[in-house]
Amino acid sequence: MKSESPIWDAKKLGIPKMLLLGLQHTFAMFGATVLVPIITGLNVSTTLLFAGLGTLLFHLITKGKVPAFLGSSFAFLGGYAMVAPKLADGSPNAELLPYACGGVVAAGLAYVALSALIKAFGVKKVMRFFPPVVTGPIIISIGLILAPTAVTSASEDWLLAFVALAIIVVCNIWGKGMVKIIPILLGIVGSYLLAVCLGRVDFTAVKEAQVFALAPITMAKFSISAVFTIMPIALATMMEHIGDIAAIGATTGKNYISDPGLHRTLLGDGLATSLAGLFGGPANTTYGENTGVLALTRVYDPRVMELAAVFAVALSFIPKFGEIIHSIPNAIIGGVSFILYGMISAIGVRNVVENKVDLTKSRNLIIAAVILVSALGFNSIGGLSFAVTADITISLSGLAIAAILGIVLNAVLPGNDYIFDDEKPDDGKTSVSFKV
């Protein structure tokens, strides 16, 4: 469904077409959103519930002006893997997952803090502390740290992994319209159907699941180590958020960084993330997939995104549907992750290139080098732990150490010439189908 001229009031299309447009946005976000709970061990129904509620909260805080959908963020996968790694048999680490969710709550509050700083001091002054020379290498590190898990999962069944990978590549490169926008969903569905035909799917849990029920709620728990491990990841996702809001603005022709203001969009995203983490869901982030649907349909009414959020909430009340998602073989997830994690690092590289970071300057080269070595090096030895008191020990992950060192070096080394342009923040190039 595509309109020739932009439509800002979807009501004039009629209720049936509005519902169809909302459903289209639901399909766009679905594959990536449910992939995160599958990888981490979180519940799919809970994830869908708080993706929907988080999106509605975001629209409330931004005064219903920004046509954005908030789905699961991949950037926090590394944090979950460090705080709550899956058990030897591949089952979720139910004991430690609530602590990882507590770290996500803290990460959401970091958004709130940045929002307050931008409101108080202005976006240009604040953003000097978070230039692309810091955020780019951090995003690169996230993908590289996750890479081994993709290979391990894919090796369980290379056929299924290859089919999933091949479908994603074909759809993303040669696909047209919605096919190009939902390659992850199509890759999962296609390889899953093959797995069913080969008898490699266990439907026991699906048969036992209820048809309708409330999504399970697991309250977050908090530990200093989990917070210090996961919260610094927000540095990368906050910068991604800014790029996404700019990309949505470039698509619709409006500057949302000025109105309703970056402080409002960050606040909405942060509170949605904290809300999800508090009740057992993954962190949220604005979705480039849905920006692609905006460009495809040219219907820019934010109420269409709100309909998609309602659809997501409705799906969360169908446990049998959630168990079908959980029945996806691990090898398929490995195949999807095989390209996904590489794309995360590639997005980091693109972040550096598109912002024209001058790596011939010694300060920039030093900052990038320290971030990359710290993230990968300390991660390989399990991070860094030190005792604060006899009862309190703080553990810092490689990413946390890298983020701290990057911010400090950028602040103290001379020659920081980064200026954030809030008038023409982006040309839409930051919108991608594979989300960080």
UniProtKB/TrEMBL annotation:
<feature type="transmembrane region" description="Helical">
    <location>
        <begin position="182"/>
        <end position="201"/>
    </location>
</feature>
<feature type="transmembrane region" description="Helical">
    <location>
        <begin position="304"/>
        <end position="322"/>
    </location>
</feature>
<keyword id="KW-1133">Transmembrane helix</keyword>
<keyword id="KW-1003">Cell membrane</keyword>
<feature type="transmembrane region" description="Helical">
    <location>
        <begin position="158"/>
        <end position="175"/>
    </location>
</feature>
<comment type="similarity">
    <text>Belongs to the nucleobase:cation symporter-2 (NCS2) (TC 2.A.40) family.</text>
</comment>
<dbReference type="GO" id="GO:0042907">
    <property type="term" value="F:xanthine transmembrane transporter activity"/>
</dbReference>
<feature type="transmembrane region" description="Helical">
    <location>
        <begin position="365"/>
        <end position="388"/>
    </location>
</feature>
<dbReference type="GO" id="GO:0005886">
    <property type="term" value="C:plasma membrane"/>
</dbReference>
<feature type="transmembrane region" description="Helical">
    <location>
        <begin position="394"/>
        <end position="413"/>
    </location>
</feature>
<keyword id="KW-0813">Transport</keyword>
<protein>
    <submittedName>
        <fullName>Uracil-xanthine permease</fullName>
    </submittedName>
</protein>
<feature type="transmembrane region" description="Helical">
    <location>
        <begin position="328"/>
        <end position="353"/>
    </location>
</feature>
<keyword id="KW-0472">Membrane</keyword>
<keyword id="KW-0812">Transmembrane</keyword>
<feature type="transmembrane region" description="Helical">
    <location>
        <begin position="213"/>
        <end position="235"/>
    </location>
</feature>
<dbReference type="InterPro" id="IPR006042">
    <property type="entry name" value="Xan_ur_permease"/>
</dbReference>
<feature type="transmembrane region" description="Helical">
    <location>
        <begin position="96"/>
        <end position="117"/>
    </location>
</feature>
<dbReference type="Pfam" id="PF00860">
    <property type="entry name" value="Xan_ur_permease"/>
</dbReference>
<feature type="transmembrane region" description="Helical">
    <location>
        <begin position="20"/>
        <end position="38"/>
    </location>
</feature>
<feature type="transmembrane region" description="Helical">
    <location>
        <begin position="44"/>
        <end position="61"/>
    </location>
</feature>
<feature type="transmembrane region" description="Helical">
    <location>
        <begin position="68"/>
        <end position="84"/>
    </location>
</feature>
<feature type="transmembrane region" description="Helical">
    <location>
        <begin position="129"/>
        <end position="152"/>
    </location>
</feature>
<dbReference type="InterPro" id="IPR006043">
    <property type="entry name" value="NCS2"/>
</dbReference>
